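Two folds, back to back.
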Amino acid sequence: MPTSSHQGYVTGYKGVKIFHSVTMADRPEWIIFLHGLGGDLTAWQKERAHFSKLGFSSIAFDQRGHGLSDRPTNFEDYRVEIFVKDLLSLVNHYHISKFYLVGHCFGGMVSMTAAAMHPSLAQRLILIDTSYKIPAFSEHRIERTLLSHLFSFLGKNLSTKHISKHANFDKFFGTADLDFNRVLSDILHTSLKSYFMIMHELTAFNATELLSLIKIPSLVVEGSKDSVFPPEVALSLKNRIKNSEIDIVEQANHIIVLNNPVDLNKSIERFLFE
């Protein structure tokens, strides 16, 4: 059972303030959760509650540009490696020596990059509905270039104004992958500038060469109905990480963290205790 909890800010890379939530429990292992693009730390409420009951301490945080964290205004501040530096700031701040890293969608991209760049950082890696590259951007050079220019223009010219509070994800339970109201909520809570700066980064994201550097046991969790990163993408990811396995959650879509927390918790729990 959790023994204490608190929330607040730590200083991330280049002084960016990172809002986070900590739950302390009995086991020596921690779980660190990274949300997807447009999300925030509250997306993990059901997962964190489940693992707190099992005795795991946990941290979830608003990645830069999201939630209550700062929103830098330069493109270079949204490179995936910079998000990794923010993660390291949290790990160092709490002197965490043993933890499991869980990332959904964009959070999975940050997590796999962290595991590759820092092989001894985490003990286990869980990647949920994510990819080592964006298929639609990576396979077609002309489309990728056009999208990169579009996202660059939007990131330079749009506002950092945003809804200055965490989203209410409960009202999006059961929504489809591209539900208009949820996506709009994601963008408005993130800010147009931050959202499209990150999208610009993703047009060039390709971790193919990094995956061979991941040595820790890894689990790829995939919804069978995910239309953003379909199961064949997850299978390719699993095949490129040597010490890995895959778990397909039947009838789940890309929003598995919100829509299928019970199934997701079972999958992660099995992997951590095997």
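---
second:
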Amino acid sequence: MSSPFVLQLKNRRCLVIGGGTVAERKINHLVTEGAAVTVVSPDLTEGLRQHRENIDYVQTALAESDVNQESCPRLNLQWRDFFLVVIATDSFQLNETFAKKLGQFISLINVVDNQELSTFFFPSVVDRGLLKIAVTTSGASPILAKKIKKHLLHSIGPEYREYVEQLEIIRKLLHENEPNARKRRALLEAITHFPAPHSDKGNR
């Protein structure tokens, strides 16, 4: 069984092994969330090459001998320094080998073609600024997760970005000016509406 958690990735060192199309999607997500991303791959997609300044790129193919111990002198990398690793080479066998060996040093592992070896999954995310809605099937059906995300994108519109920011400001002001926790809660309940006010859905 899997359990959903929200990870704080800002400034966390994250490793991605592979530079293909699947890896690109994972890298883009990590970079967007503010992670410090190191990519080990002999090549990068055109999209990743265009955003080369956002990643630390080690241009080489990772070898099995590189992950036999917690440090890799050839690449000057310490595996334990990484918060998580995404393994996305085009070899199922290599992915399995890297996952088993790096699992000794890095707890959070995502193997793009092997959910059983993965300790976390990338959800489909509806991103509305501070509001993020994650959908995951725990690796069972990424296509279904994407379709549910598409449905939610129509239900939770871009107006929620500003709305949640306004609620955050009000909540902070109440914490500064209203010492009574019950009154704060009552006020927040009164002003927090769903659907968001002024949206098409809220005005129906």
